[in-house]
Amino acid sequence: MAPRQGELPDQSLYTSVRRYASGYDHPDYSCIFVHAGAGYHSTENEQKHLRACRNACQAAMAALKAGGTSTDAVEIAIRVLEDDPVTNCGYGSNLNFDGVVEADASIMDSFGRTGAVGATPQIQNPISLARLILERSSQPLTLKRVPPNFVVGEGAVDYAREQRFPVNTNESLVAHSARIRFSKWQKEIEYQEIMKRRGRDPDKSLTADLPLLGASNRPIQESGSALPPTTQELPGTPQLLEQKVDLVTDTVGAISIDRYGNMAAGSSSGGIGMKQPGRVGPAALIGVGTFVKDRGERQAATVVSGTGEHMLHTLISAQAVNRIYDSNDELDAMKKIINEDFMGTQGYGKANIWGEPAIGVMSVKAENVSSGKRLISFVFGHNTDSFALASMTSSDPAPKTIMSRVSREPKLAVGGSSRLVQMQIKTHPEEKPKKEKTSKRLGKHDKKYHISPPLKSEKRNSLVSGLEGLHIDSRDGESSGPPSGDNADIDDDTWLIDPADEEETV
Amino acid sequence: MAPRQGELPDQSLYTSVRRYASGYDHPDYSCIFVHAGAGYHSTENEQKHLRACRNACQAAMAALKAGGTSTDAVEIAIRVLEDDPVTNCGYGSNLNFDGVVEADASIMDSFGRTGAVGATPQIQNPISLARLILERSSQPLTLKRVPPNFVVGEGAVDYAREQRFPVNTNESLVAHSARIRFSKWQKEIEYQEIMKRRGRDPDKSLTADLPLLGASNRPIQESGSALPPTTQELPGTPQLLEQKVDLVTDTVGAISIDRYGNMAAGSSSGGIGMKQPGRVGPAALIGVGTFVKDRGERQAATVVSGTGEHMLHTLISAQAVNRIYDSNDELDAMKKIINEDFMGTQGYGKANIWGEPAIGVMSVKAENVSSGKRLISFVFGHNTDSFALASMTSSDPAPKTIMSRVSREPKLAVGGSSRLVQMQIKTHPEEKPKKEKTSKRLGKHDKKYHISPPLKSEKRNSLVSGLEGLHIDSRDGESSGPPSGDNADIDDDTWLIDPADEEETV
């Protein structure tokens, strides 16, 4: 998954910001979490999406193990996803109305530093340009101009050129699959024109299909064209192919914690298909698509995927970070994020933003729970059909992936896991961690994190390994165990808090 | 101050969203608050800035009295400021590095609807394009595409053309004063080049002057050129003109409440001088530059002005709205917004975003305090030298303006006022407001809102009328009354809660 053009820009630009959490340094524990979008993933293509996630985790973990920062890991994970044509970012992005790939990307670190690009053409790895902007934010531009945090459109291309960052042609970013989607949508448009000229209501006859142009993370029925068999036969209701061949064409994201205790998060997206040129979506927006809050003792990050236009006024990633940060029950917090903070503010009063709101949320939280011990919690939720995720920690031999699915209405799935990490004490040997009673602490976390015994799914898909200790809670009132039907396969390996973890120094 | 080109776009697009606050309709009370930027305003130019604010209030109030919505009022107030060359927005904006006016603007209403443009050339009234985007967000674009909330760069120009919104030439947006600033900065650059070629450190010798290129709301010493008298004489330390001839080249903003009880807020800016083309600043960003939260019983809005790159990670307008919304002591909340939420998160850890952070914040809050009575609070704060503000309510014969100033370090000024409004009961006559003891309620608000007796400034500037009931609190530990020196002139007319207000139905 090496980039096809150019290398990372001048590495000397990058300042490795290292910070030691709460007097404990070098815990030698790092982790990466990625998602490849919430939406509808056909079972046929499930493997492609999960393989992309796995590759992203592996590349990022290699960087983390080599001493890379969480910002490095997030950038690298998202580069891998951008280079994979199956995802809607970088190479293989949706085309806008004019047939141009226009990228949105953002990245944020533990220190509140941010970098973002929006509606930017000709960049294969927008996350790397965003990261360059983040790094440059500490240094004045030429002529002592304040360095920008957020650069868009052609200006971002100029910025890239000025910084000797690789600039591509649009053609080199257009994947075959994206070209096919674009052509089909163009034909839809022609069809609409014909229908209009014949005096029929083109919208009415295409209702079942055309909303897919806009609703970015709803099922993209790639083959579900409303086009009639031939242009000679124009039925009143076009024959829709029922087969759900997905392309989930939505935002990807990553969150990482590095061995220095720092956190970073990033998002990247090609945006919605046939979008208005110049349209900026949540993946470019700090607080909407990407957010990190870090106060040392505790830190949290969130990246989201979904219908962008319904997210802007909710500042949903910042809102999610705040809820997760303050909560003792992250799964419950995740339900509130989706049901209240996102869905609850849609169309309040008479707002009526067009389209159907949908979202997938991925959050990570780390906090000191006792002397020398840090609890790392991973939690996600979605009200889309599916959500593709993966994780890898420095103690895992391989990434763990999950395609979380839910089909019953009202759709809502939440899940997560947590792990207690024993930090290595180096800088402050005088501050010895008190040896606490294992049972006491376990009881506490058991209550806090809905710990259930290691679970094993009935139905096992050998190609999908579950996230560690995954806890699926499809919606209120249902079993809090993993539903056997729609939901995730659970791996043997658990990430639950158990006595063994007490000694873990990994 | 009529627009020089074109009219408002097709009025039929606009849907007047009307909502009745808490069962009380048509209170026949409306208000508009505007600011023309935080920074340094020379006393010589003070009147120009305040006149622009006054004109903005008058135009907006005319619309409100004619039945216009708060969104109309915000749009119109900001159009007036955009059309005035003294402000850095619309006509008269700073030019970017390539000599182009690139506009940022955003608008948000009580219903969570938003519209924004960023780094957009060729638009004289970016607030109106943002407002058009807001209105269009309820309607699918052609071909059922999801309507965008945020459109940038050339794409926004295409969008404008598609919507038959006026598109100008760049030249028509460049004011004489902006051209002069640009030329001076270009000469600074040439000077730097010469210094560099001569082997001197151009940065070092220009430290006192050049940061003005970047620090958008710090003193713009228009005549304080670092240029030597002639290019033949190149002194090591260029002769700086001490005279502070300002141009505060920063974001403008407006907040309004209309007779239907709805709130709206908006911002507009030409961004920092010589900015990176494509750079998007806070005025374009919901949650950073502009935010509204409205739950009927209570509503709050905030717009900000300041060093944009230091704001992004703080989501400062949303943060301010939340603080003000939840607070019983808005002046104290405003201090926390500036000192903790903004300054407190600058460079936490080792972030080190380049440049000196500075901010001006303007907030409005309205809430039901007893049956049929709504308390409207206005509060502002800044840690810049000055902040130009104005307000007008439907009961005022003329706008009230203030140039809030502070010069002592550490700079911090907060101020505000509040008014109790008796709503007219129309829709729910059965819900009769209970007649409460005046003294009791007064006591309560007295405590809550730092009510002090009507104040009269010692030093009176006849050209500046004070905001009603203005309460200035320059910083912790100082007198809570208005400082006699730097600070605001107070008008006779007060907006404090007093028995007379109890009967006010205005």
Give structural notes.
- The structure is a homodimer.
- Chain A has about 500 residues and is an alpha+beta fold.
- Chain A has 2 domains: about 25-170 and about 245-420, 4-Layer Sandwich (Glutamine Phosphoribosylpyrophosphate, subunit 1, domain 1); about 170-240, no CATH class.
- Chain A contains 11 helices and 14 strands.
- Chain A has an 8-stranded mixed β-sheet. Chain A has a 6-stranded antiparallel β-sheet with strand order 7-8-9-10-13-14, covered by helices on one side.
- In chain A, helix 2 runs antiparallel to helix 3 (about 125-135) and helix 8 (about 315-325) runs antiparallel to helix 9 (about 330-340).
- Chains A and B meet through strand 3, strand 4, helix 4, helix 5 and helix 7 of A and strand 3, strand 4, helix 4 and helix 5 of B.
What's this, in brief?
2 copies of one chain form a homodimer. Chain A has 506 residues and is of the alpha+beta class.
Keyword list:
homodimer; 506 residues; alpha+beta; 2 domains; 8-stranded mixed beta sheet; 6-stranded antiparallel beta sheet; 14 strands; globular; disordered N terminus; disordered C terminus; Taspase1 (chains A, B); threonine-type endopeptidase activity (chains A, B)
Q: Can you identify the CATH superfamily of the largest domain in chain A?
A: (Glycosyl)asparaginase
CATH topology label of the largest domain in chain A: Glutamine Phosphoribosylpyrophosphate, subunit 1, domain 1
Oligomer: homodimer
Count of individual domains of chain A:
2
Pfam families (chains A, B): Asparaginase_2
GO molecular function, one term (chains A, B): threonine-type endopeptidase activity
Biased composition (Acidic residues) (chains A, B): 488-506
Region (Disordered) (chains A, B): 196-236, 393-506
